Amino acid sequence: MSVCGQILVADDDAAIRTVLSQALSRVGHEVRVTSNASTLWRWVAAGEGDIVITDVVMPDENAFDMLPRIKKARPELPVVVMSAQNTFMTAIRASEAGAYEYLPKPFDLTELLAIVQRALVEPRGRVADRHNDEALENMPLIGRSSAMQDIYRMLARVMQTDLTVMITGESGTGKELVARALHEYGRRRNGPFVAINMAAIPRDLIESELFGHEKGAFTGAQNRSTGRFEQAEGGTLFLDEIGDMPMEAQTRLLRVLQQGEYTTVGGRTPIRTDVRIVAATNKDLRILINQGLFREDLFYRLNVVPMRLPPLRERSEDVPDLVRHFFKLAEREGLQSKRIASGGIDLMKRYSWPGNVRELENFVRRLAALYPQEEITTEIVQQELHSAETPQEHAPGPLPNEDLSISAAVELNLQRYFSSFAGELPPTGLYDRVLAEVEYPLILATMTATRGNQIKAAEILGLNRNTLRKKIRELGVNVYRASK
């Protein structure tokens, strides 16, 4: 059901004011537009408007400075903030200041209309606690691509909650960095951030590492030891490489998530726990579930807010910003100031970066350390990239045999799957599991190929657009829009 209201629009750009006025009026809204913050504030103070849409940078005042006044005068008035300064900290500042929603410029007009409609029908009075941050100038995440804008906005939405987050992505995409950002800019920032890497701990010690142990609980346990849950009390526990957690520890972790308490290894007294869980993996947990290596019920407990970090090859436009950032870090460590010739940057943007941002950082640091000149030439970049390449790195995610048809590749995969049971048979329900497993990468690959255009993706897949949107929502597929 469509609900219409009075929309107050403030933007210094006349073209944007015209576009928004026409689009909002066309669907029945009353629109008032202005080019300055003072007029907007006068309207708000007079009780006008059901929703405010404003740019951050105005000729007479920054919207972030005006937002606290708006929230104090009219706490239930939704304010949608737009900005061409498409950084992580812009999204966080919008959230911190009490904005209803943040939209990077250029924005999707259809999405903005949907946000306006949602704001009009949602119950009012749900004003979250906001806290001023003293370190906004330190940007923990780098990139202005459309892929990263979706990540920033999702982070801003869940920052002030205790919802469990599951971060997926290839190695080197920055999963721990995102987990730290969730903690350091969230409601638990004053508590500890404790990280544990499941792949780095012997399997028989993981339960002790997580939950602690009592003296004499096992051979070598000469004293009581606190676990990571106890160390993270009141803060955030980051479970990295969760796909490597052994089944026994998975069962205990599930019990903690269900009941909010645990016992130490060798202990009998339940201990209440108050931690936020953020998990991460570079594996497809659905495959591990099908192979009986990961508990399906634990997956759904952890996958409350799924967040897929894009590989660097999907956001190559962020390479220049990342290069500048890593050169600045090298400067702080005493190395000479450097820059890369534009031709070299173009080469780096076309490179596949199988090691993602971590590989790029190491590459930039190597250039800073090995070459004395202030500008790194295109020839040097080409030489270094060539020396770093291996046959597997030329293309992302090649199949074992790139000449295989889809049918043959699936058959080969299923043969390996049946072989993994060493003569036994897999669990029942294989048909539905295989179809579900194929559906996720099929939709993800199509959405990536169309750069987030759902209309084109639906045509390619032969699906109704509403059906595609439903599947995107159900499967947790992140939609990355192309920059306009």
From TrEMBL:
Per UniProt, residues of the Sigma-54 factor interaction domain are 141-369
Please list the residue ranges annotated as the Response regulatory domain: 6-120
The record, for SUPFAM superfamilies, names: CheY-like (SSF52172), Homeodomain-like (SSF46689), P-loop containing nucleoside triphosphate hydrolases (SSF52540)
Q: Which CDD domains match?
A: AAA, REC_RcNtrC-like
Database matches in Pfam families: AAA_lid_14, HTH_8, Response_reg, Sigma54_activat
Chain positions with 4-aspartylphosphate modification: D55
**Keywords on record:** Activator, ATP-binding, Cytoplasm, DNA-binding, Nitrogen fixation, Nucleotide-binding, Phosphoprotein, Repressor, Transcription, Transcription regulation, Two-component regulatory system
Q: Where in the cell is it found?
A: Cytoplasm
Superkingdom, taxonomy of origin: Bacteria
- Please describe what this protein does: Member of the two-component regulatory system NtrB/NtrC, which controls expression of the nitrogen-regulated (ntr) genes in response to nitrogen limitation. Phosphorylated NtrC binds directly to DNA and stimulates the formation of open promoter-sigma54-RNA polymerase complexes.
- Full protein name: DNA-binding transcriptional regulator NtrC
List the source organism.
Answer: Aquamicrobium zhengzhouense
Give the organism's phylogenetic lineage: Bacteria, Pseudomonadati, Pseudomonadota, Alphaproteobacteria, Hyphomicrobiales
